[in-house]
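Researcher: Here's the sequence for the chain we discussed earlier.
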Amino acid sequence: YTVFPYTTLLRSKQWYQRRVRATLRIYYTPSTKMLLLTTLLACLVATAQATETVRMSFGQRGLDFAEDIAVYMTDIIRDIILNELDIPSMAVSGATLSNLEINQMDIPRPQLTIVPNTGINMKSDGVAVQLTGNWQYGWFGGSLSLSASVVVDTTAGVKADMSNKRFVTEYRGCSVDFYSFSLDFHDFLVNAVVNQNDVKNELRVVVCDEIQAALDNTVNGAVNSVPQTLEIPDLPAILFSPDRNPTFKSSYIDLPSRVSAVSESAFPFTADGISDEMDTSYMGCFILSDYTINTATYVALPKNGINIKLPNDDFATNSALLNSAYFKDTLPQLYNAYPNTAITYRIWNLDYPKVEFDKDLLMVEVPLRISIKVGGTVILSVKMELKTKGSVSIAGAHLSGAVDSITHTTTVATTLIGAVSDSKANSVMDSVLKKTIIPDLNAELKAGITLPIDEWVDLKKSLVQTHDDFLKVCADFSLTEYALKTIREIVEKEVAAFQF
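Model: Thanks. This is the structure I predict for it:
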């Protein structure tokens, strides 16, 4: 919904209606400082066409970052397990073990790695646990204590659930090995009779069953809690859907998605798809098709979606542009026909703004019509095509920019003031632009906007490139304290709600 350098193209429809516009084409060389803007777009994935339009990729360094988050959550997970985990009774070697409770647990930093064509492997090496419980052997019974150090090795996949339009996790394997194991029934006979390997095997089943349940319910419950339709004020509604199953390569993971604004009618254009590979020197990459932006402009700014009348509350009523005397020298036909007469303007778009990414540049076209009126009668109307060079910069999460130069061509559509050549109309419009669009845009762009991801993500090393039909952004990043706090709250809510 943001087009460079017009950073608020769709953020407010009224913003556009305050400004003179014409067909514009913007050329720019992307800067790495544009990363935050496209990261924001990454949060707005949606669907309408059965072709990939957004791709998010993560390499091993991105998984290393996920390990950091997991460590941050360890105390929550441990506390909930200690308080909530219900280990079922088990029958081994003729004895029944019951009321098993974990009293202490130490969870080491997990190790996350990619399993090609399968998913992600998580290995927790050296989980230390202490349990207490009761045993029953025939008519006899008593208490027991158990301590162990184990290696838990789990593989989880991610698949595209096209029916529910979600990515979901899948259990794809689990193993539990013991570094050490000590089980004491506090009874010489039972210690001798019960085969401790049987207890180990039962515990393996319990642990892996719990992991599978967590993947199937807790993790997917958190995913399903995210709204599928994203509503943002002054923006089109947005939906989310995967395009196909994720790709697990040896060094990175691709999550292909479909993205579009919600539209009641079919879009008059199609997605070209994405063809690219992740740059694994970064933690993650995000690829955005120009199709995605065009769906937003198509919905937010259809024909006549821009409809500006001057003067208005945002345009000075004493502006020289509002009197025919302004054109005495530049367009004498107008002045001679209506000397010292008040004039008004109307500006409207003839179609939606079109965005196209290409190698090292971004092009934006917005066809508009401009009419000049006297007493409600249109005395001159023109069509224009502008070529605008712009620049954008970011400091932190604050986005700002400037219009560097504008060239344009003008075609006369209708005239009641005699013959007006296209070149003369072009010269007149140049004067109008310098009085209106350029200074106004520069003021708006210089003030800029602070992107809402500022409280969520700190971006570090970054790369921004435009290619044929898509924008590629790669970065190293970290989460803010606010983001970590929010994640903790989600984990606490979802895990606590899960019935072990």
